[in-house]
Specification:
Elements: H1 2-6, H2 9-14, H3 19-59, H4 61-67, H5 69-108, H6 110-116, H7 119-138, H8 141-148
Length: about 150
Amino acid sequence: MKCLFGQPVSTLDVLPPGQTAAIITITASVLQMGISEKLSALFQSLATVLSAFIIAMCYSWSLTLITSSGLVLIAIVYGVTTPFLVTLMNEVQHADIQASTAANEIFGSIRMIVACGAEGKIARRYAKWVDESRRRGLKMSPLVAAQQAPGK
């Protein structure tokens, strides 16, 4: 927020309306999800795996080493797929920002749009970005499935 408010007004004027609000909303959502849900799940998972690993080593160290190779596979799969997933998430966010910008422009000049009879054209522009966001989001499905498959 400090960096955003530290920008000169001319920089903010160049951005399409709604883009700044969309970026702040998306970033806040990602941070909230990362801090509240994912961090606690990470600690729980690490504690469970570490405890299981210690107990298993006490009973049969050779079997433990063989079965823990699955954890190495999972780490490799996540390491390979995560950069691609982040790239696709950024593309989805870009489409969401464009849809938000279109919606902001619509609500900002609704009287002019209605007076000119341009509701359909503007609605199609918004729908185009919503559909593009959905299409880009569906591209993430195989990567998420690839991440989840080794653990199942």
